[in-house]
Amino acid sequence: MAAAACGIPQVAFAMDEQDDEKTIIITGTRADRSLDEEPYPVEVVTLEDLQRELPRTVPEALRSLPGVLVQKTASGHGSPYIRGFTGNRTLLVVDGIRYNNATYRDGANEYFAQVDQFTLAQIELVSGPASALYGSEAVGGTIVLTTRPSAMLEKDGDFFEGEQFLRWSSGDGSLTSRTGLGFGEGGTWGFRGGFTARDYNDIRAAELGRLPYTGFTEKAFDGRFDIALSPGWTATLAHQSLWQDDVPRTHSTVYAVPFEGTVVGDDLVREKDHRRSLTYAKLRGGTDSRWVDTLDLTLSFQRRSEIEDRTRNDGRSIEQGFDSAIWALSGVATADLGSVSMTYGLDASHETIDSEREDFNPATGEVRTRLQGPVGDDADYEQVGTFVRADFSLSEQVLIEAGMRFSHVATDIGTFAEPVTGEARSLSGSWSDLSGSFRGQYTAREHRVWAAYSRSFRAPNVADISRFGASRSSEIEVASLGLEPEKFDTFELAYRYETEMLELGASAHTTALIDYIETVPTGRMREGLVEVAKKNAASGRISGLELFGRAALAANFSLEGNLSWLRGRLTSPTADGPVREPISRIQPLTANLALAWERGEHWLRADMQWADKADELSSGDLLDRERIPPEGTPGYVLLGLRGGTQIAEGLELNLALENLLDEAWRPHGSGNNEPGRHVTAGLHLTF
């Protein structure tokens, strides 16, 4: 039971499985649970899906899930919009550790594309708010990544194994190589690690031809050591690092190629280097205590750095960046108390951020060191929270789930530019929140109905308060003072029909946006751009409908698909009074359909992705002329053929013929078009 990474996902609840090896265990609700028992709407992309579907990045592995739009400002970036939210209103979690940091913008960002998918055993998408479990930012959805463990529990005696994976695509002339190895003693200890290198060349788009200045390089390595300490207890020590070099933001440069009326930027150079790493130690096990059946303790350290080089058309250049370091500690316990099962815990993190910026004017030879980089300098950001979730089985048919979390967030920004005078300023602030969720589920034979209410929130982060720099194509953002947390009230009603041969489902959801932090003009111009700042000045609502289904057909065939509809409106202040308009970059009506055949080690699939024209544009979208066409992003139909086979023992070949109609297309809000008709091939060797 699995989701198809770039095809059609398995719908959230698995069909009955008698084979334990096929039971999918999810962790996104902060406890190990079987997918078919979880009342949350969860989509799963498995290891097999990742190896077969050949996605370029983690965000692209989510491309065909219900309610997801993957925006890509640049070829090396990726920001999933989940039910209309992205950036710092969605949360990424790696092995139970928060991945987001306090530099995240409210709009699309690049950071979700900086996790090596070859380290992963599974991707889970928990749609909708999860602040009751994770705190701030878990508003639109939470993406939960689980890394591949060592083979310690799968092997007997001493073992040594290796793998080599090659991915090639004609769409961008890219080549990816992944080399991995594992060794250890079965049941006692084990190690798994590897090295990944990627070389991306320029994209070749339909109608537009080669898109210059879109290639870059990337490399990553990882290692994970697992050891059995005693019966029922294991310890894990893991590390992963990734580097991206010279990732261009092509849309703002003179190298951009116009599409349906977009304009070409005037930067001569605009590119970023990224470095990220995660190191953690984890202890997991079970006890005989009434109140603690299982316990998970994690200590982690993350580091993220970014350097941007930007040269204007008059030769003026900017070099700016930041360095973020996060220490975090979490503990999660479960307890089965008969008719009630509980998950509870606490977590805390402390982040430090340093940023810098230098401007160079070739006309005068002057080098100017600014007070800050893209966010405030010498900043601290702390989060502490405790939560509890309880599942009540009132009968065989009725399940109630309730959750609550108390969160405290504090920041101390040492230096940032005061928005009016430009003088050095410091600021301290703190916020507390009580988030909650309630779900009721009724099951009668093949039918399942549930209703849910959730209150989620997002505290202002360092980027909200102290950001300085280019925003949309014609805007520059300055610091924002006096911000308070946003709050979100979400209601969801869903139905699912499940038999061994057929699954059908529908989910309707609506979210009220309260004290929404919106970027609004200040009335000033700065450096020839419209100056904007953030305020708790907006309110609105996002509503959506998701339909999905899967049918097992004769002769090893299956048919599955989904459809997503969203509508979002935001009321914001202007000089002429409040204006109600579409929420920026709202996902257009989107549908996915796939017909698949599988027999033994052989599989084939024909798939289609359809997106309507995205012409529900906000005033900000209309100003974003380098990325969004003036009449909206055109709709598209993408057809693909995929298949794979085991050509020898330990050697698997997967092949995809993508964009067969050679459509000229880009996801709504993206900075580049995607490849035209192209071939992607993957070769996987295990030994």
TrEMBL record:
It is found in: Cell outer membrane. Signal peptide: none annotated. It holds the Pfam family TonB_dep_Rec_b-barrel. A motif (TonB C-terminal box) lies at residues 670-687. It comes from the Bacteria. Residues 36-142 form the TonB-dependent receptor plug domain. Keywords: Cell outer membrane, Membrane, Receptor, Signal, TonB box, Transmembrane, Transmembrane beta strand, Transport. Residues 195-660 form the TonB-dependent receptor-like beta-barrel domain. Its main location: membrane. It is a multi-pass membrane protein. Belongs to the TonB-dependent receptor family. This is TonB-dependent receptor.
